[in-house]
C-alpha cells in the first residue's frame, strides 16, 4: 500500500515539470515505478524485478533521465527557502527601478 502511495505522489509531482512534454507517458510511469520502489525498499537486489524492467520496451536511458530530473526537482524543493524569496523579489524590483 505504501508503495502505491509513493508511486502516485511521484506521478503527481511530474506534473510540476516539463517531463510530460519531453517523454511519453509510459516512460514517466516506468521511471516513477522504479523511483518509488527504490524509496520504499532501498537498494535491495531483486533479480525478478531486474528481469521485469529488462523485459519492458522502454529506453533505459530515457527512464534514468526522468529519474534524474525528478531527483533534481526534489533536491530543489528541499533547498527552497520561502523567507529568502521576498528579499530576492525586493532586490529584483530595486534593480529594475534603478535601471529606469
Automatic annotation (TrEMBL):
The keyword Oxidoreductase does not apply. Gene3D superfamilies: Cyclin-like. InterPro entries: Cyclin-like_sf, Cyclin/Ssn8. GO terms for biological process: regulation of transcription by RNA polymerase II. Keywords: Signal. It comes from the Eukaryota. Residues 1-16 form the signal peptide. GO terms for molecular function: cyclin-dependent protein serine/threonine kinase regulator activity. PANTHER family: CYCLIN. This is RNA polymerase II holoenzyme cyclin-like subunit. It comes from Coemansia guatemalensis.
Amino acid at each position: 500500500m505504501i508503495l502505491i502511495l509513493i508511486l502516485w505522489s511521484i506521478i503527481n509531482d511530474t506534473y510540476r515539470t516539463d517531463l510530460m512534454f519531453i517523454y511519453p507517458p509510459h516512460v514517466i510511469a516506468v521511471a516513477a515505478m522504479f523511483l518509488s520502489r527504490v524509496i520504499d525498499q532501498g537498494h535491495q537486489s531483486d533479480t525478478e524485478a531486474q528481469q521485469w524492467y529488462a523485459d519492458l520496451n522502454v529506453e533505459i536511458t530515457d527512464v534514468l533521465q526522468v529519474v534524474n530530473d525528478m531527483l533534481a526537482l526534489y533536491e530543489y524543493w528541499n533547498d527552497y527557502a520561502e523567507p529568502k524569496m521576498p528579499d530576492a523579489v525586493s532586490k529584483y524590483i530595486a534593480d529594475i527601478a534603478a535601471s529606469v
